[in-house]
Amino acid sequence: MNRLILFVAFTLAVAGGSALAAVTLDCPTRSNPGVPNDPPCQAGFPTALVELGQDSNLYSSPTIADLDGNGSPEIIFGTQGGRVVAVRANGTLMWSRSTGSVSVQSKPAVADIDGDGQLEVIVGAGSASMNGGGIHVISHTGQLQCSFTALNPEHPQGMYASPSVGNLDPSTPGVLEIAVASFDFRFRVLRHDCSVWWEHAVDEYVVDSIWSSPSIVDLDRNGTLDIVIGADSNFHQLPGITLPDGGMLRAMNGNGSGDLPGFPKLYDEVVYSSPAIGDIRGIGELAITVGSGRCWDLPSCAIVHPVTKQMLGVQSNGQNLPGWPHATPAESSRVASPALAKFSGVNGLVTIINNLRNDDVTGVVHAIRPNGTEMPGWPLEPNIAADCAGNSLHWGTQGSPVVANLLGDSDPEIVLSAANEFVIWNRAGQQLTAATGCPIPPGTLNLSSNSNAFYNSAAIADLDGNGKLEVIGAGTNSNVPGHTGSYVTIYAWTFNGSDASQPVDWPMFRRDAINSGVYRSDLIFANGFESVP
Ligand SMILES: [Ca+2]
Ligand SMILES: [Ca+2]
Ligand SMILES: [Ca+2]
Ligand SMILES: [Ca+2]
Question: Measured in angstroms, how far is the CA atom of residue 279 from the centroid of ligand 2?
Fold first, then answer.
């Protein structure tokens, strides 16, 4: 069902190119004279890309990857105006490429998919409020290499889900395939030249739109890659299976030859959330955690029926993880997706996920142990300053958490957007960012745009290679001096206590540049970004 109303829907006129250069904004301050902002802004940030004309970024989470291989990472994301944008580590625009008029709301994947030794950017365009869109492959210099736009004409809406790439066809070892879910009632695997390798429709249980982004992983460890994804469902009597009004979690063979044993798992509610996969129990076995969406208790979305509000935890054989599902009454993740984190003293991985309460306004953040119980101090709600009288707001988000050790202590911190700030908690659930304002209390952190809200996920990387991690936000600013209107703006704050040589748990949405959604402890993952496999 794609009638989910996201928080804001507006269109912006897209101005033509110009000779303007990016404007470096003042670091948003704590409104506390004499107290510098903590953390400080990275040099060159915030950077308002006024040379793009008026545009914005709402839902496209940034990917961090070294596109040109010069040792310095770039920040890559999409815009509501249909662009893909690459920004250098010093805050200047590297390139932008229009994909058409349909918004880019997905996170780009970056990998060398055609085997020529140069990286490509693979991105989906699509919006619940617009027809059109598709998958576009863009070179590391910003040139369009190919597009797939042959959407199902009965439901001609494109891709909100972020594409994932991997070697799904073992017969073509030098090139990678693109796995992508779509609003057009199809799941596809495209070849690197944007041709369709295989496609699933009604006969293979794709009976509705899909919001969830695929993970590519050898889930059953038989030597071939599989695809794990959530999906929507509605009643269909098909040969050998009755699909419910609800949703499902699928684990499909990467070659398109059906689902793994134990899948699909069928539920009474949609699964918009994207799976997180790792050795969750610390026993050398891959497992899946994922949130639930929200549709089948909303008259605006469906003919309602009672739904089970829960977070899902599933083993590679399709059985529930012991202690799961984790009940979350009166809240649901919608499109928010878990991050996995390694905390000291916990065998296995902790699932971090944010839900929206049924009021569709306030948020709840969970840290769930491998056995399905909450970490001490959790769940909690985000707190941001509401006014000068000591009140707080508790806004939820459809962005997803990211996790890295920002303080240089023994455990990672959790970063999540709430309105126009990023909120940070430590492992114990103590909020490190200011919960109240006017002025912001000394000793608390403050990562604010002082302008538009963040609707996507932060990214964490060492942009300048000085050994200290930055928290990066790709958003919009409507207070650019000398410029009326709204502009794509990138924020970055540096954490001087961090150590970028340490492994990073989950530094961006879908965890890595190939959008795998997989926690790989066996890969070198320093500096906040990894070399693309
Ligand atoms: Ca670079
Ligand atoms: Ca290439
Ligand atoms: Ca497999
Ligand atoms: Ca740095």
Answer: 31
Distance 473 CA to ligand 4 centre (A): 15
The ligand that comes nearest to the alpha carbon of residue 43 is 4
How much distance in Å is there from the Cα of 134 to the middle of ligand 3? 27
* pLDDT at residue 524, rounded to an integer: 38
| Number of neighbouring beta carbons within 10 Å of residue 328 | 21
Segment-wise mean pLDDT, segments of 10 residues, the chain, 533 residues: 47 47 93 89 98 98 98 98 98 98 98 98 95 98 98 98 97 96 98 98 98 97 96 97 98 97 98 98 96 96 97 98 97 98 96 96 98 98 95 96 96 98 98 93 94 98 98 98 98 98 96 96 45 37
Q: Three-class SS of residue 146?
A: strand
> What's the pLDDT score for residue 418?
97
Say how many Å lie between the CA of residue 438 and the centre of ligand 3.
55
Q: Please report, as a single letter, which amino acid is at residue 243.
A: L
Alpha carbon distance 292, 461 (integer Å): 29
- Residue 464 CA to ligand 4 center (angstroms) comes to 5
- Tell me the CA–centroid distance for residue 176 and ligand 2, in Å: 10
Backbone phi, psi, residue 468, to 5°: -115, 135
pLDDT of residue 277: 98
Q: How remote is the CA of residue 138 from the centroid of ligand 2, in Å? A: 10
**Helix H or strand E encompassing 96:** strand 93-98
Between the CA of 209 and the centroid of ligand 2 the distance, in Å, is 30
CA distances in angstroms from 419 to 45, 170, 230, 445, listed in the order given:
19, 44, 27, 16
Q: How many CA atoms lie within 13 A of 339 on its CB side?
A: 29
Q: Minimum-distance ligand to the CA of 254? A: 3
Q: What is the dihedral of CA 122, 127, 128, 132, to 10 degrees?
A: -90
Q: Which ligand is nearest to the CA of 222?
A: 3
Residue 266, number of CB atoms within 10 A of its CB: 15
The C-alpha torsion from 59 through 64 and 69 to 71, rounded to 10°, is: 150
Ligand 4 centre distance from Cα of residue 32 (Å): 25
Instruction: Give dist(CA 273, CA 289) in Å, integer.
Output: 10
Residue keyed to tokens 């410029």:
483
